[in-house]
Specification:
This protein has 13 helices and four strands. It is of the alpha+beta class. A hairpin with a 6-residue loop joins strand 3 and strand 4. Helix 11 crosses helix 13 and helix 12 packs across helix 13. The two termini are about 45 Å apart.
Length: about 350
C-alpha cells in the first residue's frame, strides 16, 4: 500500500495513501452484506436479500461510504504500526477518491505526543510555598452544627427545613443530640469530629492548590506546540465527564443544555483554555514520571483495581474490562506518585539541567 507521510506544525502529521482496488472491492462486498443483513423485504428472509435488490434499496453511495469506513478501520492501525507512529486523539479522515473497481484514496490528519523540554522542575517545585496549615474558625463549627440540626429536624418532620427557621425550632444542642447523629457520647466529641473533618477538607484543598501551582509554574517554563487534535480530545473528555455527572443525578443531558441555553460546541469553545491547561499538566506529569522512572508496583496496581471493583459491586464485575481497569489504575497511581515526588522536591537541579 503506497503511503506518504508529511510532518506538520504542532506535532501533527498528514498521511496520504491508497488501498488497492482489489482490496477495496472486498470491503465493498462486506459493506453490502452488512447493510443487507437487517433489510426486511417481503418474499425474502432477513439476511438473504439478493445483491441487486439490496443495491437498489441501499444506494451505491451508502455502500461505498460504509466500505470506505470498514477499509480504513482495518488499515489505519496497520499504517500506524508499520510506520511506527504513536498517534493520539481521534484522526481526521478525508476520502479523496472512491469508486468501485478503483483504489480508495485517502488523507488522514493525526497527531503524536509533542516532545517537551522540561525545565528544572525540582527547583521550580521546591520554590512553591508549602501548603498553609488550615485555620478553623468557631463560626464554621457553628454552621456545621446548624446544618446537622436542620437535617435532624427535616428527618423528624418529613419536610424540608428552610434557612428561615428560628433557632428554637431546631433540636437543642446537647449530648443527646450528639448521640443522635453518630457514635458520639458528648457534644464536645461531636464538635471535635467536625473540627477534624473541616480541617481535613481544608488540608486537601490546600494540598491540591499547591500541586496545581507547581504544575502551572513548570508548564509556564515550557515552550508549547500543542496539537489541535489533542485539545479537541480533551474537550470531548470534559463533555463526557460533565454529561456523566449530570446523568448520575437523574437529569437528561439535553435538558441541561436547554436550561443553560448553550449547545455542546459553545461549551467546548469556552473550555479552550481549561482544556489546554489540563493537557499541559498531563504531559508534564507523564514526562517527569518517565525521567524519574516513577511507576507503581504490580501489587499496588492490583490492589487499586480490586478496590475499584468492590466499589462497582460484584454484580457488575463481568461488565468491566479488567485490562482497561489495570491501565486506569496504573495511570492514577503513577500520577499520584509523580505529584508526591514534586511535593517533596528539594532545591537541586535536574540531570538535564546540569
Amino acid at each position: 500500500m503506497p503511503i506518504n507521510i508529511k510532518k506538520l506544525p504542532k506535532s501533527e502529521m498528514e498521511i496520504t495513501g491508497e488501498i488497492p482496488a482489489e482490496d477495496f472491492d472486498k470491503f465493498v462486498a462486506q459493506s453490502i452484506k452488512n447493510l443487507a443483513q437487517n433489510m426486511e423485504i417481503p418474499g425474502f428472509r432477513r439476511g438473504h436479500v439478493p445483491e441487486k435488490i439490496a443495491l437498489e434499496r441501499i444506494g451505491e453511495d451508502a455502500i461505498l461510504h460504509e466500505a470506505a469506513e470498514l477499509a480504513l478501520q482495518n488499515e489505519y492501525p496497520k499504517i500506524l504500526q508499520s510506520e511506527k507512529i504513536e498517534a493520539i486523539g481521534r484522526p481526521q479522515i478525508a476520502i479523496t477518491k472512491m469508486a468501485r473497481g478503483n483504489a480508495l484514496e485517502f488523507k488522514i490528519k493525526t497527531a503524536v505526543l509533542p516532545k517537551i523540554k522540561l525545565p528544572d522542575y525540582k527547583n521550580i517545585a521546591s520554590k512553591v510555598p508549602p501548603a498553609a496549615k488550615p485555620e478553623i474558625e468557631e463560626k464554621e463549627i457553628t454552621e456545621a452544627l446548624d446544618y446537622l440540626r436542620k437535617a435532624r429536624a427535616s428527618n423528624e418532620t418529613g419536610t424540608e427545613t428552610n434557612s428561615g427557621n428560628k433557632t428554637n425550632d431546631l433540636p437543642e444542642l446537647n449530648d443527646d443530640f450528639a448521640k443522635s447523629v453518630g457514635q458520639f457520647n458528648t457534644l464536645e466529641e461531636l464538635k471535635k469530629a467536625l473540627r477534624e473533618n473541616i480541617s481535613f477538607e481544608k488540608e486537601m484543598k490546600n494540598k491540591e492548590k499547591r500541586r496545581t501551582d507547581i504544575l502551572q509554574n513548570i508548564a509556564e517554563a515550557i515552550t508549547w506546540e500543542l496539537p489541535d487534535i489533542i485539545i479537541e480530545a480533551e474537550k470531548d473528555k470534559m463533555i463526557a465527564e460533565m454529561r456523566g455527572n449530570i446523568e448520575s443525578m437523574g437529569l437528561k443531558w439535553e435538558d441541561y443544555l436547554k436550561n443553560i441555553k448553550k449547545p455542546e460546541d459553545e461549551l467546548k469553545k469556552e473550555w479552550q483554555s481549561e482544556a489546554e491547561k489540563r493537557v499541559k499538566y498531563g504531559l508534564v506529569i507523564q514526562e517527569i514520571g518517565v525521567q524519574e522512572h516513577i511507576e507503581p508496583s504490580e501489587t499496588e496496581i492490583e490492589a487499586y483495581a480490586n478496590q475499584t471493583l468492590e466499589r462497582y459491586g460484584r454484580a457488575n464485575h463481568a461488565k468491566i474490562d479488567k485490562n482497561r481497569l489495570k491501565e486506569y489504575a496504573q495511570s492514577v497511581l503513577g500520577n499520584e506518585k509523580t505529584l508526591h515526588f514534586l511535593e517533596t522536591c528539594e532545591n537541586k537541579p535536574t540531570d538535564t539541567e546540569k
